[in-house]
Specification:
The chain is of the alpha/beta class and 536 residues long. The chain is built from 17 helices and 18 strands. The chain is 25% helix and 16% strand. It binds 1-deoxynojirimycin (NOJ).
């Protein structure tokens, strides 16, 4: 990729690495930065353009790095600052970009800022966090809940007040109404941007500002018994406040002070609220993550509707993006079923907008079984037994059939998926039509056909299990037909219009086939169709 290209984040394919689980080089069972450097040739061959790393900063690891105790250093578990400098140099030498995770909503309770803040009511950092008196009759200041179970307020003996934590008690929320907090975090951003990072994925960006009056949240009338307890109360006053957009515009200005950098926001909100995060005049996040595909019913009709709604709701000039998996959600191959995993990939990489892949999805990694004694995730520990655990999507990358899957010389921090001896990079690389080789072909065709990147999205009415759309722009039109069902399905080639040559099938065995009267798809098959010129 051209390093100076202002549009790189629009055109590129992003790949999320969960560093703990990618590659261990010092035999402690946890992945590290040197391991990522070692695996750069693999990522280059896969064809991705940008790497986003989940947090690598010093942390007591109560939430595996999303509880940061020092924003401008590297946790020894992952390596040193020298390792980081080597990583960024190597990533750039490989023609790739590097995105860091910024976690500004909360710190660790071990962060020096919080240690100071909790030391006394008149400490100069008291106002950096959210301290409130309890109710006169006793109990927490209001009914806000922690996403990881229980009240969102923790009573602090030393000063007799409560602090707010949207997640663990070990993750106190910063007070983003305080200008000093803002400046401190902007300085953190500048620190890493000066080192050459190409942008940030901002953790729970829609949480940053809370209601100034701390009003009680209303109950959720649609709460379903058995769902995580925090869902019983809506987050009307604790998240998504109008003033958050000022903060994001400020972050964006920091980003814009550096050449060609990107601000990505983690936001779980309904579509009409999500698009506000592009900001007025697009001065907000360039990519508010679009998680619609993580929770949709996997049918042609629902997906067509989601894409249409999204395309229609995007503000003028806003660039779309799509995500199929991350470190918080069950693996796509388990969610949609292994048979549909390739169809899901073809969807992700042919919709209009930047795709973000999750490590291991390219080898079809599934949600691993985690027995109760193997649980590491604090969410599962606090709210056990209802399926919220995130360990199953965070298991070590399966590189080979060697002990510990070539991930480590030591016992990994999480168990390996039981099928690693078969489902691993070395094996799948050697099988011509494996999912891994399919991913490589898919990413390669996206690079070859500009209309898959910048072309307009034009739906062609979904028919039964077949999702059909065109991407048209520079280079002409290509057509994507995805069979979301397990049964064979056909469509008249007249509904495809132009483009009768199969450029790529999810099964990797039909390239060059000319489609005559009908396009016949096997169960769980997707194809990209174009003209012979596209194939050349
Ligand atoms: C969202 C992150 O993706 C998740 O892993 C983390 O637990 C919470 N934010 C809290 O930081």
């Amino acid at each position: 990729m051209d390093q100076g290209d202002q549009n790189w984040w629009r055109h590129g394919v992003f790949y999320q690495i969960y560093p703990r689980s990618f590659q261990d080089t010092n035999a402690d069972g946890v992945g590290d930065l040197a391991g990522i450097i070692e695996r750069l040739p693999y990522l280059r061959e896969l064809g991705i353009d940008a790497i986003w790393l989940s947090p690598i900063f010093p942390s007591p690891m109560a939430d595996f790095g999303y509880d940061i105790s020092d924003y401008t250093d590297i946790d020894p578990l992952f390596g040193t600052m020298e390792d980081f400098d080597a990583l960024i140099a190597a990533v750039h030498d490989s023609g790739l970009k590097l995105i860091l995770d910024l976690v500004p909503n909360h710190t660790s309770d071990q962060h020096p800022w919080f240690i100071e803040s909790r030391s006394s009511r008149d400490n100069r950092k008291r106002g950096w966090y959210i301290w409130r008196d309890g109710k006169p009759e006793g109990g927490p200041p209001n009914n806000w809940l922690s996403e990881f179970g229980g009240s969102g307020w923790e009573h602090d003996e030393t000063t007799g007040q409560y602090y707010y934590h949207a997640f663990l008690t070990q993750q106190p929320d910063l007070n983003w109404r305080n200008p000093q907090v803002r400046e401190a975090i902007y300085d953190v951003m500048r620190f890493w941007l000066r080192k050459g990072v190409d942008g940030f994925r901002v953790d729970v960006i829609w949480h940053l500002i809370k209601d100034a009056k701390f009003r009680d949240n209303p109950p959720n009338p649609h709460y379903v018994e058995g769902r995580p307890p925090h869902e019983a109360i809506l987050t009307q006053y604790s998240t998504d406040q109008p003033e958050v957009h000022e903060v994001i515009a400020e972050m964006r200005r920091v980003i814009d002070g550096f050449d060609s950098c990107v601000l990505i926001g983690e936001i779980y909100l309904p579509l009409h609220r999500l698009v506000a995060y592009y900001g007025n005049d697009l001065a907000g996040a360039q990519m508010p993550f679009n998680f619609a595909l993580l929770s949709t019913l996997w049918s042609a009709h629902s997906i067509e509707k989601i894409v249409a709604d999204y395309e229609r709701t995007l503000p003028a000039g806003a660039w779309p993006n799509w995500v199929l998996g991350n470190h918080d959600r069950p693996r796509v191959a388990s969610r949609v079923g292994p048979e549909q995993a390739r169809v899901a990939a073809m969807l992700l990489l042919t919709l209009r907008g930047t795709p973000t892949l999750y490590y291991g999805d390219e080898i079809g990694m599934r949600q691993a079984m985690i027995s109760p004694d193997q649980v590491r995730d604090p969410f599962e520990k606090n709210v056990p037994g209802i399926g919220v655990g995130r360990d199953g999507c965070r298991t070590p990358m399966q590189w080979s059939a060697r002990p510990h899957a070539g991930f480590s010389m030591a016992k990994p921090w999480l168990p390996l998926a039981h099928d690693f001896a078969r489902e691993n990079v070395i094996n799948l690389d050697a099988v011509r039509d494996s999912i891994l080789n399919f991913y490589k072909a898919l990413i390669a065709i996206r690079k070859k056909l500009p209309q898959l990147v910048t072309g307009a999205y034009q739906p062609v009415a979904a028919q039964g299990d077949i999702l059909l759309y065109r991407r048209e722009g520079e280079g002409g039109a290509v057509v994507i037909a995805l069979n979301l069902g397990a049964e064979p399905a056909s469509i008249a080639s007249s509904s495809i219009g132009f483009g009768r040559e199969i450029l790529l099938s999810t099964m990797l065995d039909r390239q060059g086939e000319q489609v005559q009267g009908t396009l016949d798809l096997r169960g769980n098959e997707g194809v990209i169709l174009g003209t012979p010129a596209h194939a050349g």
